[in-house]
Design goal:
alpha+beta, four-stranded antiparallel sheet, 44% helix, elongated, disordered N terminus
Length: 194
Protein backbone atom coordinates (compact mmCIF):
# COMPACT_ATOMS: atom_id res chain seq x y z
CA UNK A 1 0.00 0.00 0.00
CA UNK A 2 2.81 2.36 0.87
CA UNK A 3 4.51 1.72 -2.48
CA UNK A 4 1.24 2.40 -4.29
CA UNK A 5 0.81 5.71 -2.42
CA UNK A 6 4.37 6.74 -3.33
CA UNK A 7 3.71 5.85 -6.97
CA UNK A 8 0.62 8.10 -7.07
CA UNK A 9 2.48 10.97 -5.41
CA UNK A 10 5.29 10.71 -7.92
CA UNK A 11 2.77 10.64 -10.77
CA UNK A 12 1.09 13.73 -9.37
CA UNK A 13 4.28 15.69 -8.72
CA UNK A 14 6.16 14.76 -11.87
CA UNK A 15 4.08 17.01 -14.17
CA UNK A 16 4.43 19.85 -11.65
CA UNK A 17 8.22 19.62 -11.63
CA UNK A 18 8.29 19.44 -15.43
CA UNK A 19 6.07 22.53 -15.54
CA UNK A 20 8.31 24.28 -13.01
CA UNK A 21 11.42 23.39 -15.05
CA UNK A 22 9.72 24.81 -18.14
CA UNK A 23 8.82 28.04 -16.30
CA UNK A 24 12.40 28.41 -15.07
CA UNK A 25 13.69 27.79 -18.59
CA UNK A 26 11.25 30.40 -19.92
CA UNK A 27 12.56 32.97 -17.45
CA UNK A 28 16.14 32.29 -18.58
CA UNK A 29 15.14 32.54 -22.23
CA UNK A 30 13.10 35.72 -22.05
CA UNK A 31 14.14 39.34 -22.16
CA UNK A 32 10.78 40.81 -21.10
CA UNK A 33 8.04 39.41 -18.88
CA UNK A 34 5.43 40.64 -21.36
CA UNK A 35 5.03 38.14 -24.22
CA UNK A 36 4.13 40.84 -26.77
CA UNK A 37 7.26 42.88 -26.00
CA UNK A 38 9.43 39.77 -26.04
CA UNK A 39 7.96 38.71 -29.38
CA UNK A 40 8.38 42.19 -30.88
CA UNK A 41 12.03 42.16 -29.80
CA UNK A 42 12.65 38.67 -31.19
CA UNK A 43 11.24 39.80 -34.55
CA UNK A 44 14.33 41.99 -34.94
CA UNK A 45 16.19 38.74 -35.66
CA UNK A 46 13.53 37.11 -37.89
CA UNK A 47 13.89 36.68 -41.62
CA UNK A 48 11.08 38.11 -43.76
CA UNK A 49 9.46 34.67 -44.31
CA UNK A 50 9.58 33.97 -40.58
CA UNK A 51 7.92 37.33 -39.82
CA UNK A 52 5.13 36.39 -42.21
CA UNK A 53 4.76 32.88 -40.77
CA UNK A 54 4.52 34.09 -37.16
CA UNK A 55 2.28 37.15 -37.61
CA UNK A 56 -0.96 35.41 -36.55
CA UNK A 57 0.31 33.30 -33.65
CA UNK A 58 -1.72 33.24 -30.44
CA UNK A 59 0.00 34.04 -27.12
CA UNK A 60 0.57 30.40 -26.15
CA UNK A 61 2.01 29.62 -29.58
CA UNK A 62 4.21 32.72 -29.32
CA UNK A 63 5.50 31.54 -25.95
CA UNK A 64 6.37 28.11 -27.33
CA UNK A 65 7.90 29.60 -30.46
CA UNK A 66 10.00 32.10 -28.47
CA UNK A 67 11.29 29.39 -26.16
CA UNK A 68 12.59 27.43 -29.13
CA UNK A 69 13.75 30.55 -30.97
CA UNK A 70 15.96 31.76 -28.10
CA UNK A 71 17.18 28.21 -27.34
CA UNK A 72 18.30 27.79 -30.96
CA UNK A 73 20.46 30.90 -30.65
CA UNK A 74 22.17 29.79 -27.46
CA UNK A 75 25.87 29.53 -28.41
CA UNK A 76 26.59 27.23 -25.46
CA UNK A 77 23.51 25.14 -24.53
CA UNK A 78 25.35 23.18 -21.82
CA UNK A 79 25.56 26.25 -19.56
CA UNK A 80 22.70 27.32 -17.31
CA UNK A 81 22.40 30.69 -19.07
CA UNK A 82 21.58 31.50 -22.65
CA UNK A 83 24.50 33.78 -23.52
CA UNK A 84 22.74 35.14 -26.59
CA UNK A 85 19.73 36.24 -24.52
CA UNK A 86 22.06 37.75 -21.94
CA UNK A 87 23.82 39.77 -24.67
CA UNK A 88 20.45 40.92 -26.03
CA UNK A 89 19.48 42.05 -22.51
CA UNK A 90 22.69 44.11 -22.28
CA UNK A 91 21.95 45.69 -25.66
CA UNK A 92 18.32 46.44 -24.69
CA UNK A 93 19.52 48.16 -21.51
CA UNK A 94 22.05 50.18 -23.51
CA UNK A 95 19.39 51.15 -26.06
CA UNK A 96 16.96 52.19 -23.32
CA UNK A 97 19.66 54.31 -21.67
CA UNK A 98 20.97 56.00 -24.83
CA UNK A 99 18.16 56.02 -27.40
CA UNK A 100 14.93 56.57 -25.46
CA UNK A 101 12.89 59.57 -26.46
CA UNK A 102 9.14 59.30 -27.10
CA UNK A 103 9.39 55.53 -26.71
CA UNK A 104 11.66 53.01 -25.03
CA UNK A 105 15.07 53.02 -26.66
CA UNK A 106 14.83 49.37 -27.68
CA UNK A 107 11.83 50.26 -29.89
CA UNK A 108 13.60 53.14 -31.68
CA UNK A 109 15.37 52.80 -35.03
CA UNK A 110 18.82 53.18 -33.46
CA UNK A 111 17.85 50.77 -30.70
CA UNK A 112 16.67 48.15 -33.20
CA UNK A 113 19.93 48.32 -35.18
CA UNK A 114 22.05 48.34 -32.02
CA UNK A 115 20.23 45.31 -30.61
CA UNK A 116 20.58 43.38 -33.87
CA UNK A 117 24.25 44.12 -34.56
CA UNK A 118 25.81 45.56 -31.42
CA UNK A 119 27.97 48.69 -31.36
CA UNK A 120 28.82 50.15 -34.77
CA UNK A 121 32.34 49.93 -36.14
CA UNK A 122 32.20 53.70 -36.64
CA UNK A 123 29.77 56.53 -35.82
CA UNK A 124 29.93 59.87 -37.62
CA UNK A 125 28.02 62.82 -36.13
CA UNK A 126 27.28 65.73 -38.44
CA UNK A 127 24.76 68.48 -39.22
CA UNK A 128 22.74 68.81 -42.42
CA UNK A 129 23.65 71.51 -44.92
CA UNK A 130 21.67 74.70 -45.43
CA UNK A 131 20.05 73.59 -48.70
CA UNK A 132 17.88 70.86 -47.21
CA UNK A 133 14.24 69.94 -47.00
CA UNK A 134 14.16 71.35 -43.44
CA UNK A 135 16.21 73.60 -41.19
CA UNK A 136 19.57 72.25 -40.11
CA UNK A 137 19.34 68.96 -38.23
CA UNK A 138 21.83 66.65 -36.59
CA UNK A 139 22.36 63.22 -38.07
CA UNK A 140 24.43 60.13 -37.40
CA UNK A 141 26.03 57.69 -39.81
CA UNK A 142 26.55 54.22 -38.36
CA UNK A 143 28.94 51.89 -40.14
CA UNK A 144 29.20 48.15 -39.60
CA UNK A 145 31.75 45.76 -41.04
CA UNK A 146 29.80 42.52 -40.93
CA UNK A 147 29.65 40.04 -43.83
CA UNK A 148 29.48 43.13 -46.01
CA UNK A 149 29.79 46.83 -45.29
CA UNK A 150 26.50 48.05 -43.90
CA UNK A 151 25.68 51.73 -43.37
CA UNK A 152 22.73 53.47 -41.70
CA UNK A 153 21.88 57.17 -41.52
CA UNK A 154 19.68 58.43 -38.68
CA UNK A 155 18.28 61.98 -38.76
CA UNK A 156 17.06 63.95 -35.75
CA UNK A 157 14.02 65.17 -37.64
CA UNK A 158 12.36 67.05 -34.78
CA UNK A 159 15.56 68.40 -33.26
CA UNK A 160 14.86 66.73 -29.91
CA UNK A 161 17.05 63.63 -30.09
CA UNK A 162 14.43 61.42 -31.75
CA UNK A 163 16.55 60.01 -34.59
CA UNK A 164 14.76 58.35 -37.52
CA UNK A 165 16.29 55.93 -39.99
CA UNK A 166 16.37 57.53 -43.44
CA UNK A 167 18.99 55.41 -45.21
CA UNK A 168 20.26 51.86 -45.04
CA UNK A 169 22.76 50.14 -47.30
CA UNK A 170 23.14 46.34 -47.52
CA UNK A 171 20.31 45.55 -45.11
CA UNK A 172 17.19 44.31 -46.88
CA UNK A 173 15.18 44.40 -43.64
CA UNK A 174 15.57 48.15 -43.20
CA UNK A 175 14.24 51.05 -45.26
CA UNK A 176 15.77 53.84 -47.27
CA UNK A 177 13.60 56.87 -47.90
CA UNK A 178 13.48 57.64 -51.64
CA UNK A 179 14.35 61.30 -50.99
CA UNK A 180 16.88 60.71 -48.20
CA UNK A 181 19.46 63.03 -49.82
CA UNK A 182 17.04 65.97 -49.71
CA UNK A 183 17.06 65.72 -45.91
CA UNK A 184 20.85 66.05 -45.75
CA UNK A 185 21.51 68.75 -48.36
CA UNK A 186 24.13 69.23 -51.05
CA UNK A 187 26.99 69.39 -48.58
CA UNK A 188 26.54 65.74 -47.52
CA UNK A 189 29.86 63.94 -47.85
CA UNK A 190 29.53 60.81 -49.99
CA UNK A 191 32.62 59.43 -48.24
CA UNK A 192 30.43 58.89 -45.15
CA UNK A 193 28.79 56.00 -46.97
CA UNK A 194 32.03 54.04 -47.39
Amino acid sequence: MRILTMFFLICLLLPLTAELDEQISDKNDRVFENIEKDFKLAKYFFSSPLKHYTKDLEDEDKRIFLKRFWENRDPNPVTSQNEFVEEVKVRVNYANTHFSHYQDGWESARGRIYIKYGPPFEIINDVTGINTKYTQKEYQVWKYRLNQNTTYIFLDLGGYGDYRLIYSENDDDEITLPDWRSYLGNSFKESYLY
